Amino acid sequence: MVMRYGDGGGLNQAARVRREQVRRRAADLFAQGVGPVEVAKRLEVSEKSA
């Protein structure tokens, strides 16, 4: 089952922009071979989020 949230998960526009920036940075780090634990630490997010 996939959960769907209206309006960007309840985030305002600024928060959605920040979230997308974090996602892109995480993708760059993963592409460089950085592991999930280090990505989470660098981006200050949970390991599950990374």
UniProtKB/TrEMBL annotation:
<protein>
    <submittedName>
        <fullName>Uncharacterized protein</fullName>
    </submittedName>
</protein>
<dbReference type="InterPro" id="IPR009057">
    <property type="entry name" value="Homeodomain-like_sf"/>
</dbReference>
